[in-house]
Amino acid sequence: MTTETITTDAGDARVTWHRAGTPRLVLAASHGAGGGIEARDLAALAAVLPAHGVTVALVEQPWRVAGKKVAPAPKTLDTGWRGVWPALTAPGLPVISGGRSAGARVACRTAPELGAHAVLALSFPLHPPGRPEKSRAEELLGAGVPTLVVQGGNDPFGKPAEFPKGDHELVEVPQADHGFAVPRRADLTQEEALQVITDAVVRWTAALG
After folding, report:
1. Most CB within 10 Å of its CB: which of 120, 127, 155, 158?
2. Backbone angles phi, psi at 185, to 5 degrees
3. pLDDT digits (tens, 9 = 90+) for 130-150
């Protein structure tokens, strides 16, 4: 694991690399508006994917690096992501643009212009809780590249059944919330819930080449 700081027009971002021995893809993934790269799904992917030929680059947006508690406007998040992109493509491998929650929105919005190989959207916030009329489906549908959505079955930001039909693939993590936490009385353990995520992403990335 190595870490580098990258200067962007939105401030300094930080990338933590989890490198595969013989990589064929890079998965670049950023965090949501309420947490960092220590999120359980991002940590699980960083632990599992390198053994399958996928280098994982966990990206901390400048606002997190600066120690701020509130995420900036979407356009500022996009600026930070664009600024990090050259470092993500530097290894010369196809890059999957990814993230959880707000990070997933950034990945979808910027995928066409940045030339992302694919998009991984973890806990895509389809709408604010209780506000289904405020849909962000256009961001997801506009990614324009192979897209995998991994969504908790009880995510208040959008349950799997609420998602529009499109070219994306959707995998449900049963009974999981927006952070992929499952209740103690759920039909699967927390470890099994995370394995649903990692198994889906391993399979999907294998199909990407």
Report:
1. 120
2. -95, 15
3. 999 999 999 999 999 999 999
Pairing of strands 147-152, 118-122: parallel
DSSP-assigned states of every residue in 31-90: --TT--TT-HHHHHHHHHGGGGTEEEEEEE-HHHHTT-SS---HHHHHHHHHHHHHHHHT
Residue 33 confidence class, pLDDT cut points 50, 70, 90? very high
Tally the C-alpha atoms within 13 A of residue 82's C-alpha that lie toward its C-beta.
13
Are the beta carbons of 172 and 141 closer than 8 angstroms? Answer: no
Q: What are 61-85's pLDDT values in tens digits?
A: 999 999 999 999 999 999 999 999 9
- Residue 172: both structure tokens together: 């449900």
**63 and 132 Cβ atoms separated by less than 8 Å:** no
The residue assigned the tokens 């901390």 is: 60
**Burial grade of 157 (CB within 10 A; 0-12, 13-18, 19 or more):** buried
CA distance 174 to 10: 37
Contact 119/145 with Cβ under 8 angstroms?
yes
Q: Give pTM, 2 decimals.
A: 0.97
Q: How far apart are CA 186 and CA 189, in angstroms?
A: 7
Helix (H, G, I), strand (E, B) or coil at 154: coil
End-to-end Cα separation, the chain, in angstroms? 24
**Cα–Cα distance measured from residue 180 to residue 43, given in angstroms and rounded to the nearest whole number:** 12
